[in-house]
Model the fold of this input.
Amino acid sequence: MKAAIIWLGAILLAAVAAPFFLSSASQSMNLLSPLEAPSLHHWMGTDPLGRDLFFRILCGAQVSVGVGFAAVLIATVMGILIGTVAGYFGSWVDRILMSLTDAMLCFPVFFLILAVIAILGPGMIPIVVIIGATGWMGTARLIRAEILTLKHREFVLAARAFGASNRWILTRHLIPNALGPVIVHAILGVSAAILTETALSFLGIGVQPPTPSWGNILMDGKATLGSAWWMMLFPGLVIFLTVLSVNVLGEKISHQMRGSR
Amino acid sequence: MLLKAKIRLKKNIFVSPPTLLVGIFFLTVSPCLAAPVEGDAFVTSSISEPSNLIPFLASDSASHAVTALIFNGLVKYDENLKLIGDLAERWEIQDGGLRILFYLRKNVRWQDGEPFTAEDVKFTYQKLTDPATPTPYGGDFEKVKSLTVVDPYTIEVIYKETFSPGLASWSMGIVPKHLLEKENLLKTDFTRHPIGTGPYRLKKWTTGQSLELWANADYFEGKPPIKRYIYRIIPDQTTSFLELSVGNIDMAALTPLQHQKQTDTLFFTKNYQKFRYPSFGYCYLGYNLKHPFFSDQRVRKALGLAVNKKEIIEASLLGLGKVSTGPFLPGTWAYNPDVPEGVFDPAAARTLLKEAGFIAVGQDGILSRDGKKFSFTVLTNQGNDQRKMACEIIQKRLRDVGVQMDIRTVEWGTFLKEFIDKRNFDAVMLAWQLSYDPDIYDIFHSSKTKQGEFNFIGYKNQEVDALLDEGRREFDETVRAKIYHRIHQILSDDEPYLFLYVPEALPVVHRRFQGVRQAPKGVGFNFIHWYVPKDEQKYKLKA
Done:
């Protein structure tokens, strides 16, 4: 648990700070030293264009983790809005919104993402928006279920008896009380979003060069498989450890919440 | 021919050192000349599946690789890239090139036993020129005025005007009239069950997995010794390299990285023979000449000066390539050796851009003209690491002179449909695979800029147009060479493309195959004569 937090802290620091200090270092080519094995000078070796892999992975954190968090933020906000409205107002509003949710869940999301990128073109913003816009359904269902149980509880009835408006009840009573499981869900969503970004970049339709992201570093490594082990090992390891840490953290929070209820 | 060499060797063996060299060469190749043994299978792979096995409907390389084994044209290129007879035994060019008489072989049968005759050639021609046939090769036959069957084994072709690529265009595979006469070419089962005159016959096609071809016992040049030709479909290059690394594939094209760094293992040197020779194509950065910046020749020249081609070859091809100076290949007769390679001079590039009205305004050092920043996007296809790396190097070099270039990689189908066909791009990084005739009319003539045609950058130059027309009318190679040398010079001065490099072809072939030879046409041109000695045969055929 501690290790997970320390790792995530380090990655977040890299995501925030590295692009300011290392952006040019991560893109500076040295065509005279392509594919150098890890050494004291290049901790994780160099890529086929002689760029330092360690710097590239640090800078790649910004894209990969940034996309993860931003996409989940969009997904969570959308999920909360849709789920709350559906759960609170019920009847036909609920039926329409939940049908939409079910329809979206039936969709093969990854292919939807591929199609949208084919039309809009790749880039960080389209990726964030599309991962976010296709990832809200779980949150919506979760929060709707919470709202459905909460809205008949005494404190809500009391607020209503005092003449509180719907908006007041929703923002002051219902949403804050329903947020717990949503937060856990969102944390786990971050790891899924990081993996989606990695997969898109690996397919070459994510963030475009020279900006590094973990996925496109990994893709560059595929071609050198067998002659430059560091090209796949280090980005793969970083992705693995980050996703694992996020999941460990999510599990832990979820566990504690269940315990406190 | 061999006998002659032997006699000469005996006569002159002590005469002079050069003859001795001939002798050594003869001795080293002689073990391959033992009588070929039948049997075994040859396995190769492709990242894509053939789309159509009717030769004139096939436009992708996978389909071509397979149809070349099943069908024959009237003529073909020999190992030294000279046109020789294939289904035509010989031909006569008359009336200054306006009339060609083809005399066909008489002992040829279709793989279903029917005899091949002049009617099949006429039928193929009719289909090729039928507006209902969606073939990209129809243009080669537009200049034909008439085609007449003189007798079952003689054909007369009359051209409207002299057309020098005309003879080579008859290397198009001929299809059987008796099987296709009543078929709709777009729906026929023939595309998956083709019958040709060629050395191999399609036996089995498992969609998404493989095609299996068997040697044609009645082939007019003799039955090929290798019994089976297996064409596996492996959509991922890394996977196919892994298959090669365990010996499951007999021939493959390597990437420079694989050639230089991943195939020096004991297993590879023991089992595979590596080849390298210039490929028949070149890679270029093509500018959309409708773009306000790229329509200015000074801008194109400046970008050329800002890019170091040698550095790109060193880094992305690991040195396995040559600098490209124009649309022809070094060493061919159309290539003009006097065209300079171009220099790498960023300072000159900056001066030229300044002359063209570009000034740096912002903090970022990016130049702009009339308030518009010099930033553009170059498109390239997915899956080609060398091209992507070349793009990244160019991106850095252009940034150094104040030009912002973004890179976008696009899937091949989308690339053609959404960007090339619709002319929706600033610049593209692509390569041309060239035919052996230097006619580049389709690529640079101003009449070829319509949708679906190859002059997608919109290049228009009256002198080049006139020269291209002239080159097509002229038969004399020395006269044609002068014409193409001039075209080469103009295109190098005008720089509608930034000509980058001619990559090397890097095939490997399993060592158990005998008779494998490299020629100007590459490796594999004499595949039908390859064989495997009995004790080395790997695949046994169950009867």
Notes: Residues 63-214+240-260 of chain A form a domain with the MetI-like fold fold (CATH 1.10.3720.10). The mean pLDDT of chain A is 86. DSSP finds ten helices and no strands in chain A.
